[in-house]
Every structure is written in structure tokens, then in C-alpha cells.
Design a protein that fits this description.
Length: 178
């Protein structure tokens, strides 16, 4: 998969992404806004395992955000059973690239990709209350706040609320669809 985003792109992970993944993922300021499954410290083994996982995924649902090198990641988690028409979307970006509009473009593009390539009617994302930048990204990309889950997560010893944002397939305007 390849989606051009101007000076960046969303693409499949590659074996040679390991060093760049380690460089940008091994950052407390990145990991503090993500689930504990995204470890800190982030080791070379973590990077290698993640890339191996994504390369062998079928279907592939996790992708690299890259400029000259990998600078972040974005993907969906397909749901099952009664939730089978939904997917959770998640993303992260290396700290040197924050505030440049990259992740908003990536989220918008990945939203379109997911709706056009998977049998989905709903994409949703959870965001910690302590991450206003990600809340703005979701809102700029057209996601709507569905609710606040009070004291629903624990991160770094802190009990936090998280917000649920979602986009429905029929909310994409005709010019946004591929």
C-alpha cells in the first residue's frame, strides 16, 4: 500500500525501518499518550518484532508514516462478532514532526483507505484526556466526540478519562471518497 501525503507517505513497513522505528518510538513523550502495548523504553527487539508482525499480517492493517525515513505509524484493528463492521484506528508520530499537520493528513488518508478497502461502517479512536493535540487531530479529520469514559484507563500510575471519537462511512463527503 502507498498513499502520498505531499512530503510524506503512508506505506507498508519494511525490514530496513528498524533503526528509524527505534529512533522515534523510544521516546517517553510519544509513549505516554499510547497504550502500554507500545513500550518504553522501546528496544531494538520491540522494533524488530513489530516490523515482523506487520509484514506478516493478513490483511495488512498497520502501516508506516514515512518522509525520508519512517517517522510514525498508523493502522486499524478490525473488530469481530457484533462489532465486525467497526475498526479502531490508532496512530503515533515521532516528536520532531509534531505540529506540522502530518498526522492529520495521515489520519484523513487512512480513514478513506479503511472505508474503501474494508467492509466497515465505523472507525473509532480512544484518546487520553491528557492528549489535547490528538483530540485536535481527530476533530480536524472530521471525527466526532461520542463520549467520555470516566476513569477508564491507568497510565504511568495515573487514572485517566478517555474520549471516544468516531467517523461513520456515510459521513465522508463525496469529494473525500476515492
Amino acid at each position: 500500500m502507498l498513499i502520498k501525503l505531499g512530503n510524506c507517505e503512508i506505506r507498508n513497513y519494511r525490514i530496513n525501518d528498524t533503526e528509524a522505528l527505534l529512533k522515534y518510538a523510544n521516546n517517553w513523550n510519544v509513549s505516554i499518550n499510547l497504550r502500554d502495548g507500545f513500550p518504553f523504553p522501546y528496544t531494538i527487539q520491540d522494533a524488530s518484532d513489530w516490523i515482523d508482525f506487520t509484514i506478516h499480517q493478513n490483511p495488512q492493517t498497520n502501516f508506516a508514516i514515512a518522509a525520508q525515513e519512517l517517522i510514525g505509524g498508523i493502522g486499524i484493528t478490525l473488530q469481530s462478532d457484533v462489532h465486525r463492521k467497526s475498526a479502531e484506528i490508532g496512530y503515533w508520530l515521532g516528536e520532531p514532526f509534531w505540529g506540522k499537520g502530518i498526522i492529520t493528513k495521515a489520519l484523513t488518508a487512512m480513514t478513506k483507505y479503511a472505508f474503501n478497502n474494508f467492509d466497515l461502517i465505523r472507525l473509532y479512536a480512544y484518546v487520553f484526556e491528557t492528549n489535547p493535540a490528538s483530540i485536535r487531530v481527530l476533530e480536524k479529520a472530521g471525527y466526532k466526540l461520542e463520549g467520555r469514559l470516566r476513569k477508564s484507563v491507568i497510565k504511568d500510575g495515573q487514572i485517566l478519562d478517555q474520549m471516544v471519537y468516531a467517523m461513520l462511512k456515510d459521513e465522508l463527503t463525496s469529494h473525500e471518497k476515492f
